[in-house]
Amino acid sequence: MTATKTPENSTISKDWKPIYKRWWFWVIEVPFVIIFVGALLRIPFLNEEEGTQIVVEQIHAQKLTIADVMGDNLPPPPDPAQVDATIEGIDVNWNGIRDDVELAIFKKYPNSAKIRAAELQYAKALQKELTLVFNSETFVATAQETSRASGCIADLTSRDNLKIYINNLKGYEKEVKDLQLNTKERISKENTNSQFLTSFGGLEGVRCDVEPTLIPS
Amino acid sequence: MLNQHSYPAEKKIVAALILVAITTVFLPLSVRGASCTNFGWTVVFVNGVFTDEGSAKIQRQDLENVLPREINNEPVYVRLGHNPSHLGGGGDIIQSAAQAFGKSVSNFDRDTILMQIHPQVTTQKILLVGHSQGTFYTNAIHKYLSEPGAYKESIAVYNLATPASYVADGGQYLTSTNDKVI
Asked: CA separation (Å) from B76 to A5, B34, B82?
């Protein structure tokens, strides 16, 4: 014979309350909840930080090669309908320089590999500004690469006559900028990027991706 | 007996406390000493009012290109101390007007620039180059950096198109008589 438990003879105290109705439960629980929710909310930012780090490394890692300078892997003329259809344009040889810009530089300087090297590096840096910038860190990384390339262009001319030096520097830079920023969309993207500007300095070390002494002419 | 056993332990605790105290007092000094070297030169360019961000970047780059890469075999670093525009430039005009009369509306921008350039300035020899409204900040930064304990004689200011009424540290100036604004 089994005894039936009724509320009257239950061994459970009448003061019994579910755990969530006890004050100490919430004292312990609330900090855990806050930490957990905070950690969840941090996930997107952690992903962005990691993504930023990867892109910044990518920006600094992609260098011009001597093969690019000598035209060993020149692309075919791109389809005119596709050239300016997007901001990034066409780059079938995957060297980070837009094909139409690369071909135009080779056409203008068929006999000066040194000028080609400096201008191609500058074009490559400007292309990164158009395609890889999405926050201040990536903006600064591209600005540092553009600055290196500008320095490489600057080294083409002697500083003995500063007027000629500056004219040449500005002239070479303008040639590449005119080729690179040739549509409203590309100019707009360049201007939009500027919202990410912050204080920064140039990179130390060599300016030219390809050591000028290794270039034949 | 108990005292004999506890004495070495107490000695260790006292020794540890002394070590902590020495570390606390001297480590920051050694870190500070290591962070700013006597080798090299840093040029900090502070842009002016209505200078859009793209131009500020190019101006820093131009300055870097016209300056020598080394002076006396010591490297020259060029940093941009970014002076951002406020309210499409309107806020800058109010700030500039107040600064021209010797008042500072806010030290917020000066402090922001200082905070941003701080990790990038690793040399004791510093040249502050200001343009237009940026000259108020180069003067203010010079004053801040020249406070007691700093290397005042290693910090200089070169201001261009300055609306400020003075050049920090009693610097010389030249004003065109054709300048209707000043």
From this structure: 89, 18, 19
Of B133, B154, B131, B132, give the one whose Cα is nearest residue B142. Answer: B154
Question: Between the CA of residue A146 and those of A69, A76, A149, A202, what are the distances in Å?
Answer: 18, 26, 5, 9
Residue A128, C-beta contacts closer than 8 angstroms, at least 6 positions apart: A59, A62, A96, A142, A145
pLDDT digits (tens, 9 = 90+) for A89-145: 999 999 999 999 999 999 999 999 999 999 999 999 999 999 999 999 999 999 999
- Residues of chain B with C-beta less than 8 angstroms from the C-beta of A195: 53
Q: Does A136 touch chain B (CB under 8 A)?
A: no
Phi/psi for A74 (5° steps) reads -65, 140
Please report, for chain A, the start and end positions of each structural domain, with discontinuous segments joined by +.
18-61, 64-214
Residue B83 carries which side chain, given as an amino acid letter? N
User: What's the CA dihedral at A174, A176, A180, A186 to 10 degrees?
Assistant: -30
* DSSP-derived pairing of the beta strands B37-46 and B74-81: parallel
| Chain-chain contact of B82 with A195 (C-beta, under 8 angstroms) | no
Average pLDDT over residues B60-82: 92
ipTM score of the complex?
A: 0.71
Please give the pLDDT value at position B95: 62
Q: Is A194 on the interface with B (CB under 8 A)?
A: yes
Token digits of residue B9: 């332990």
8 A C-beta contact, residue B116 and residue B82: yes
Write down the pLDDT at residue B34: 45
Q: How far apart are CA B110 and CA B103, in angstroms?
A: 13
Record the pTM. 0.75
* CB of B75 closer than 8 Å to CB of B69: yes
Write down the pLDDT at residue B105.
Answer: 46
User: Could you read off the pLDDT of B100-114 as tens digits, one per residue?
Assistant: 556 654 677 888 888
CB A173 within 8 A of CB A153: yes
Per DSSP, A129 falls in state H
Q: Within chain A, where are the H helices? A: 23-61, 66-70, 80-83, 99-108, 113-131, 136-154, 162-180, 184-193
Percent of chain A with pLDDT over 70: 93
